[in-house]
């Protein structure tokens, strides 16, 4: 069975908050979750599973589970593994599927392919996570340009972190992508916090 809808969570960098956002989107859509390539521990799948509270979502095993916390191509090389994205097969589900990438769009998974090639292979719609910091406009626009150059469909942007209205508005105006959600700093990330953001995000998918 193929998923009913596919969303690929990617970001402008490694520490932008993809796993938290993946949990929020998974909870909002009561979707299944899959991280095809995991490099290092703890596993993001386990983290998302602890934050999602709905009874519907299923969590699928990684296609590649690497030991070293580094870019997938480097971890695979060190461990004698060859990552072949052409051999990736979607999990068996009829539910909406959230696919979490590794790092940013141009993180290499092999000598031939980048993370964003996984989204292209499965024709998944991208949700872009952007955190705001000094220099993040540049990183975000470079990512947006790469997505546009590759003709990757984008559902919208989720900002993660403190508000910066000038930066956010510039990014939205430039990209012409819709704003799906803004996740603000929280003292503690709990299933309740994730559920609260999920309720907000659900409205963006209904509209």
Keywords:
Rossmann fold; globular; P-loop_NTPase; two-stranded parallel ribbon; 207 residues; alpha/beta; 7 helices
How would you portray this structure in words?
GO terms for molecular function: ATP binding; dethiobiotin synthase activity; magnesium ion binding. One of its GO terms (cellular component) is cytosol. Pfam families: AAA_26. The chain has 207 residues and is α/β, with parallel strands linked by helices. The chain has a single domain, classed as Rossmann fold (3-Layer(aba) Sandwich), CATH 3.40.50. Helices cover 36% and strands 21% of the residues. The chain is built from seven helices and nine strands, in the order βαββαββαβαβαβαβα. The chain has helices at 18-29, 44-51, 72-78, 116-122, 136-149, 165-175, 191-206, and strands at residues 6-11, 32-34, 37-39, 59-60, 64-66, 97-104, 125-131, 154-160, 179-183. The chain has a seven-stranded parallel beta sheet with strand order 4-2-6-1-7-8-9, sandwiched between helices. Strand 8, helix 6 (165-175) and strand 9 form a beta-alpha-beta unit. Helix 1 (18-29) crosses helix 7 and helix 5 runs parallel beside helix 6. The longest helix is centred in the C-terminal third of the chain and has 16 residues, at 191-206. The protein is globular, with a radius of gyration of 16 Å. The two termini are 27 Å apart. The mean pLDDT is 95.
Give the helices and strands, then pairings.
Layout (H helix, E strand, L loop, with lengths): L5 E6 L6 H12 L2 E3 L2 E3 L4 H8 L7 E2 L3 E3 L5 H7 L18 E8 L11 H7 L2 E7 L4 H14 L4 E7 L4 H11 L3 E5 L7 H16 L1
């Amino acid at each position: 069975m193929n998923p009913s809808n596919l969303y690929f969570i990617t970001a402008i960098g490694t520490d932008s908050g993809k796993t938290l956002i993946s949990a929020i989107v998974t909870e909002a859509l009561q979707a299944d979750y899959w991280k095809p390539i995991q490099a290092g521990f703890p596993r993001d799948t386990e983290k998302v599973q602890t934050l999602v509270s709905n009874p519907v979502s299923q969590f699928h095993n990684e296609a590649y589970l690497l030991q070293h916390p580094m870019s997938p191509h480097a971890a695979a090389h060190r461990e004698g593994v060859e990552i072949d994205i052409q051999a990736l097969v979607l999990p068996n589900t009829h539910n909406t599927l959230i696919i979490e990438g590794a790092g940013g769009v141009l993180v290499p998974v092999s000598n031939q392919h980048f993370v964003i090639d996984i989204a292209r292979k499965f024709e998944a719609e991208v949700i872009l996570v952007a955190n705001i910091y000094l220099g993040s406009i540049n990183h975000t626009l470079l990512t947006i340009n790469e997505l546009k150059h590759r003709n990757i469909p984008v559902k919208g942007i989720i900002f993660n972190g403190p508000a910066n209205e000038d930066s956010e508005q510039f990014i939205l105006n430039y990209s012409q992508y819709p704003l799906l959600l803004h996740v603000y700093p929280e003292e503690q990330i709990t299933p309740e916090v994730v559920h609260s953001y999920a309720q907000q995000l659900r409205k963006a998918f209904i509209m």
